[in-house]
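Troubleshooting log. The previous structure file for this entry was overwritten by mistake, so regenerating from the original sequence record. Sequence copied from the archived sheet and checked twice against the printout by T.R.
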Amino acid sequence: MLALNWAITTSGYSSVAYNSSIGAWFFSSVQQKNHLGEHLSPVMALFAPLYRLQPDLRWLLLAQLAAYCLTPWPLERLVRSLGASCRPAAVCSCGLTLLWFIYPPMQAAMKTSFHPSSLAAPLILFCLLWWRQQRFTRFWAGISALLLVKENLPLVLAGHGMKTLAQNRHVRRGLLLLLLSVCLLWVSTQWLIPWIEGGDYSKLSRLAPFALLPDKVQYLWGLLSPLGYLPLLHWRHGIVAFPAVMQNLASGYEQMLSLRFHYDDITAPLLFSALPSPLLFWWWPRLAQLRRVPSMASAVILMVALLSVPKSPLLSLIKDPPLAVHHELHRRLEELEAHVPRDAWILSQHALGPYLHHPLHRPFTSDADRYSVRGLPAGSVIVLSDAVNDAGIRDLSLCLAELQQEKTAEWLVQYQPLQVFRLRQS
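Regenerated output below.
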């Protein structure tokens, strides 16, 4: 119900979890297709039992928030595994924890709607830790779990393989990781997703490595400057994030370069994994000679952290809970669906879509100045509401006014506060 006034993406993933809970595995009511044909995210099946207990998108937002807040735990263990003395290790861990919470790309990921890739950060760092500790059974179990999150997670393997080669450690293992990552990417994007979708992998259309070059320079600046360019200065460590960064740089899709969405939630933990060793063994011995500088820097970082904690989607929902009208809308949607024949089309506003599980349902959208019902078969039902998110419709009030005046549309007032129209034979 919370999705009634929330972003389309979160509502879409919520519908995938809900439909999976009732046996329609991975079906998206927003996209009207199997979501695995868009993104290979079988991890959404984990939410099906929770949605069986209570269909509520807060399950998704809680998981996203938990992953964000738990990431400093493997980061601290990664610092400790390097064998530095207690004081520098503690300072490094605290500093990186604060930096994680104020890092702009991760703040942006938390401000945007839910995506499965936002769950990956802690497990990415644990996998790198287990490799360092030579706990290879745990490492491969963790990588297997990551592959269920999204189709681009093999980039973690590719980055780690490049780091292994750059540091001249276990060259064969590095080459194996690179080769395996390429194979996994090919299987997921060139075989599995096209097989499920029945067509090509749609995201490849975004490839444009030489487009938006000024934006890409600005993107690199925004990505690396909060980290003091340490992944670049100490490139043998920072190269672990190179494939993930190149994924965005190779795109001509502006949002992937804006640092305002979720597109760096895989890149960020990889960049942070490159920081502990340079900080402990290169920068600490030099800064330790300047007694006041580290204390002043820590105070500044702490103040910035406290002032810039992002307002997460979950916090927004806590402060703006569902109203009585949203409960009434949900009840009316259930009544409407029970009375619409299974062979009649239902066209709904995006925000209402996840709560309609009719076999002939699709979104009602329009970016034109006029609204027309031409081409829709008789018996089709249009479902709108001015009490929820109006994404996808340029002017909802104008749309409602024109539908009320449409001669071939019958206004079903019994479903208010929904605005329901059934098309008659012209």
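Residues 1-8 have pLDDT under 50 and may be disordered. Archived copy saved in two places this time.
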